[in-house]
Structures are given as C-alpha cells and as structure tokens.
Design brief:
The structure holds 2 protein chains of 2 kinds. By secondary structure, chain A is mainly α. Chain A is built from 12 helices and no strands. Chain A has helices spanning 2-29, 34-39, 45-55, 61-73, 87-122, 127-141, 144-158, 174-208, 211-219, 223-260, 266-275, 279-307. The longest helix of chain A is centred in the C-terminal third of the chain and has 38 residues, at 223-260. Chain A is globular. In chain B, the strands form 2 sheets. An 8-stranded mixed β-sheet of chain B has the order 6-7-8-3-9-10-12-11, sandwiched between helices. In chain B, strands 2-1-4-5 form a 4-stranded antiparallel β-sheet. The chains are: A mainly alpha, B alpha/beta.
Chain lengths: 316, 319
C-alpha cells in the first residue's frame, strides 16, 4: 500500500513537470515576439526592450524555463504586466471565489445525482426511472450558460430572490457571499448532475446483475440490504472515475459561468488576461489549472485503492 | 422424513411476445440426508427449478404449483418470510466461485453476515463461527484466512468459502448449482468428497445440479433427468444409470467420452440442439432429436412408465 502510494506520488510529480514543459513550450512557439504581442503595435523600441529584459527574453529558453520553475517552487509567480501586482497574490485572491464555487458545484451535483441514479436503478423500468431519465436527458442537452440565463430570469429578474451577478466579497458576510455563488453553482452543477445520475444508474444496474448480488439474496438479505451492503460500493468505481473527469469540465465551465455572472474568479482572470495579452498571468493560470486536474486524478487513483482491495499491494 | 416436497412446479417467463414455459410440471420429494441429482443439458430448466425453490426468479417469471418445506408452501410465503428462510433453512451454492463472492468484502465478513442476519450473533462471535466453518470445509489456517479477500484465494478455496457460507445456519436443504463445473478436475473430486461428508454429518438434503453424469453418479441417491423444462426420467441413481429407460438418458450416456473414446474418432453426440422454449412441440419436448420419435410423440404428452425401478416419460421406453 505504501509502495503504491510512493509510486503514485512520483508519477504525480513527473506529470506536473511534463505539464509545465508543455505550457512553457506552447508559449515559446507562439508566433511573434511576446513583448511585442503584449505591448501592441504602438510600442516604442525602448519600452519593448525594457519589457524584453523584464520577461528575460534576452536569455536562452532552457534558462528561462529553469528560472520559472525555481521561482514557482519558491511561490514567486512573477509580476502581472497589466495589473502590476505579483501574480501569486492575484491568483490567491481569485481562488477565494473559484474554489468555493467548484466545491459547491461538486457537492450539489453529487447530492443530486447519486440518490437519483440509485433510485432510478432500484426502480428500473418503472415510472420513477423513466422520469429521472427524461430529466437527466434534458440536463445533458442544455448548455450551462443558457441554463444560467434562465436561472437569472427566474430567480433574479422575476422573483428577485438572488443577485444576478457580481460578488460582494467574503467580508460582506457568509450569507451574501453564498447568495452570490448560488446561481453560478447551480448552473455548473445541474448539467454535471445529469450526466453523473446516468452513470450512477448504469453502474448500480451493472452491479445489481452481478453473481454476488444473487449470493447475497440467497443468504436472506432483503433487496434494500443487498443494495446497501453489496451493490453501492461496487458501483462507486465508475462513479468516482466520472467525477474525476467532470472536474476538468467544471474548471472549463467556471471560465464561462464566472463571465456570465461577473464573478471575479480565476476563470474570469484568465479570460481577461488572454484579452489583455498578459502572458505571464496566462502561463501561470494554465499551469495551475493543469495541476488541479492532475491532483484530482491522483486523488481518484488513491480512492480506487481505498474502494477496491484488488488494486492494493499489486503492480499497476 | 420428507423435507422438501415439490408438486407440479411450473415457471413461465412473460415476454413481449408471449409466455415462455421454462419449467413444465416438475414434481419430486426430498428426504433428510439424501441427495437428489438434477441432470440435463444447458437450458433444460435445472437452474430455473432451483431458483424457483429459492423464490429468486426474475420478476418477469410466473410460478405455479407447490413447494413445501416441512409442509409450508413457499409459493404462498411473502418476501419477509422468504428472507428468513433463505440462507437459514434453504441455502444455495452457485457455479462460479470467481464471481459469486463480493470482491470488496473480506471472506470472514461475508460468511459472518449470514450468521448475524439469521442467528442474531454479534460480529465477533459470528467471525469465530466463520473460522470454525472454514476449518470444517478444509481451509487451512482458517483464522488467518478470515481477513482474506476473494481474489487472494484459488477457485477451489473460493468454492469452499461458498459452501461454508451456505452451511453457516445448518440449512435443511442445500442447493448446489454446478458446484464443480468451474473447477480443475482434481479440485472437483475434493469438493465432491466434501459435499458428501457434509450431507452425512449435517443430515441435510442436497439438490445437486450438474450436467456431469460422473459427479451425479458419485453423490446422488436419486436422479432426475430434465429436458425442455420437464422431467424425462427419474428414479434411484442405480436404477436410472443401469436401466436408462428414456432415449434422452441414453443419449446423455452415449455422449460421455468413456473407454470407447479414441484419438481422432468423433465423440457421440445427441443430434440437434435444445429447442427454444417457444419452439417446443405439444407432446414430448425431446421429439425432433429423438431416434424413436413418432407422430404420437409430437402431439401427445408421453405417459410415465416404470421400467427396472426407473420412471421414464416416454411412449417407447426401454434399453
């Protein structure tokens, strides 16, 4: 078990390094001079030269990569060109919105999808199953930004219950902050819940068809007890896989949803940074997003081994 | 002493195109400490008969007739009652030990679960009893093995675990559905010996389902040959094996690769395949594959005739 964990951690570090190389190389092979791209066509040769020195463009690429990585490890992400503040502080500030938004979405999506998926499987081919499947089909088909607009129309414009956008800041109080995050979180969560409910249903149905379920029934367990003790944990593996995959879609979705709701989160920051050609910020955020996805995959791997004893203490 | 009395058991599966008869009028009685062998090809209705006794058939199945356990008709029992009977009074061992155990639970817990459920035992006491059961079915270092997961055991060991699980509550009836078919030949013999000694020791009644006449011959006191959901021939193992009154029984024996089998020579086989339940003739289900088949067999249910102690459902029985 420990050896397995060590192997996984080594894999994690190597993947992170590979991601950093890809991000760096992509930035490097972009056509044109980054300094010229950032400053636009009206830049004077003097400002260009100053920015080139600031960016370290006068040094060879491997040196710049090594400097970037070493600085990253020390928590120094560079200075944003447009905001003129350290990128680390900028990202940290934005994360206080994006991380709660992501966690809220995952919690909502899981809380909706797992019970519905299990219920649909337990009531296979009966009205409850059909109803849940119809709703999840709609949920899969509807894009989240359009769904967000509908939510705003209903809860903000018509009912006036929740703000239609913006973020008052955490200092305005937990209630106000969560009210601002509610609609964005629902817009992100529902399409994911729709997919997750379908995956849960089919995973539970698959597990219900297994021989050990018949064994459990032959022991005298009721249908409900069999579901609880023998089916659910076995059905968890595909569900956890999909939840891991959905996390990257959640990050991509956050970029869109934060823009729809004017939330000053990480997604909105990367969007603005791209528009303003602030390549330092773009580079660091892209690596951060990649790192988040890699960490989630690592967590999913560890979860697998916790769920399934067959994956412990064996070569991978 | 009769433990189980099955009378005119019929199982129909409802399908969008109509009802398919899967089991057609099966009757037998089973005494304490005896073994009934159920033999026949795949699709002959053996396993469906077993699942009907357990009341574990799919929901699309309609069952009629009577299944009396110590006089109580299980077909009249509700699901709560059946949950008390299953695993306690009637237990079952399945064919595939690889998949019949839950891969995520320790085997000790899987055995103890039955005891906790039916005997109201505490987990600790149930695990101690599980260790005794594992020891009884021939698993070495049983105490240590309690914490093993199914994938850490061999096929034969897993089948022993399944048997220990089924025996936990000392059931009156044990149903073993092809318990040795998925095992190596040497392991098969060990499991058969184990089952035989357990029947003697516990005095339970065993229903042994197998397509393997060798296994049936070594274990069963009585034999029931099934085909197309109906009983073709039944009687004491000795009578059925020596008389072979039904042409289908003869076909099964002829298909054994016995002493006459030689390299390069084709093995004898019953021509044709088991017909689908909706393609059975009105009369004898074996009509169409039977060398003695006449028009009368196709249109009329065959009479049951006793020859040499064996009862065969056939118009033209005899060796």
């Amino acid at each position: 078990m420990l050896a397995l964990l060590v192997r996984r951690v080594i894999g994690l570090v190597l993947t992170l390094l590979a991601a950093a190389v890809v991000v760096f190389v992509v930035m490097e092979v972009l056509p044109g001079d980054p300094a010229a791209v950032m400053l636009g066509v009206q830049a004077t040769p003097e400002t260009l030269a100053a920015l080139r020195t600031e960016l370290g463009l006068d040094r060879p690429a491997p040196v710049r990569f090594a400097t970037w990585i070493i600085d990253l490890l020390q928590g120094d992400l560079g200075i944003s060109y447009t905001y003129r503040v350290p990128v680390a502080g900028l990202i940290a500030e934005r994360l206080t919105i994006t991380v709660p938004l992501a966690l809220l979405s995952i919690a909502l999506s899981t809380a909706i999808a797992l019970p519905l998926g299990i219920l649909a499987a337990a009531r296979h081919d009966r009205p409850a199953d059909a109803g849940i499947m119809v709703f999840s089909q709609i949920g899969v088909a509807v894009p989240n930004f359009w769904f967000a607009l509908l939510l705003v129309l209903l809860f903000s414009v018509t009912l006036g219950w929740l703000p239609s956008g913006g973020f008052p800041g955490w200092q305005a109080g937990i209630g106000a902050a969560f009210a601002a995050l509610a609609l964005p979180a629902i817009s992100l969560a529902l399409p994911q819940a729709a997919i997750l409910a379908r995956v849960t249903r089919s995973a539970v149905l698959d597990a219900l068809g297994e021989d050990y379920v018949r064994t459990a029934r032959a022991k005298g367990l009721t249908r409900a007890a069999t579901l609880r003790r023998h089916v659910l944990r076995n059905a968890l593996i595909p569900v956890v896989t999909i939840m891991g995959l959905q996390f990257s879609f959640l990050l991509a979705g956050a970029i869109i949803i934060e823009n729809v709701f004017y939330l000053p989160g990480l997604g909105r920051l990367v969007f603005q940074a791209i528009a303003q050609r602030d390549l330092i910020v773009v580079r660091d955020i892209v690596l951060l997003l990649a790192a988040m996805v890699i960490f989630i995959n690592f967590a999913v791997d560890v979860l697998y081994t916790l769920i399934d004893p067959r994956l412990r203490g064996q070569r991978t | 002493m009769t433990v189980l009395d099955v009378e005119d058991l019929r199982v129909d599966i409802r399908t969008p195109t109509g009802r398919l008869p899967i089991v057609r009028g099966v009757s037998f009685t089973l005494a304490r400490g005896t073994t009934l062998g159920l033999v026949g090809e795949s699709g002959s209705g053996k396993s469906m008969t077993a699942l009907a006794i357990m009341r574990l058939l799919p929901q699309a199945a309609d069952v009629s007739g009577a299944i009396r356990l110590h006089g109580e008709d299980l077909l009249q029992a509700d699901e709560t009652r059946m949950c008390r009977i299953r695993g306690d009074r009637i237990a079952m061992v399945f064919q595939e030990p690889m998949t019949a155990l839950n891969p995520l639970h320790r085997i000790g817990d899987q055995i103890a679960e039955t005891l906790v459920l039916h005997r109201d035992m505490a987990r600790r006491a149930a695990l101690d009893e599980a260790a005794r059961l594992l020891d009884r079915v021939g698993i070495r270092e049983a105490q240590a093995r309690l914490s093993a997961y199914p994938h850490q055991l061999s096929g034969g060991q897993r089948q022993r675990v399944m048997i220990a699980m089924a025996l936990a509550c000392r059931p009156d009836v044990l149903i073993a559905d092809e318990p040795t078919s998925a095992l190596d030949v040497t392991v098969q013999a060990q499991v058969i010996d184990l089952l035989r000694s357990l029947v003697d020791e516990f005095g339970m009644a065993l229903i042994l389902i197998s397509h393997d006449l060798g296994v049936i011959g070594r274990l069963a006191d009585r034999v029931m040959v099934m085909y197309g959901g109906a009983i073709m021939e039944q009687g004491s193992t000795k009578a059925v094996f020596t008389t072979r009154a039904h042409p289908y029984t003869q076909g099964l024996f002829a298909a054994l690769p016995g002493r006459g089998a030689r390299k390069g020579r084709r093995l004898a086989a019953i021509p044709g395949t088991v017909p689908a339940p909706d393609a059975l003739p009105a009369g004898c289900p074996f009509y169409g594959r039977c060398p003695r088949g006449q028009d009368v067999c196709r249109d009329n249910p065959p009479p049951v005739v006793e020859i040499g102690g064996s009862r065969a459902a056939c118009f033209f029985p005899g060796p």
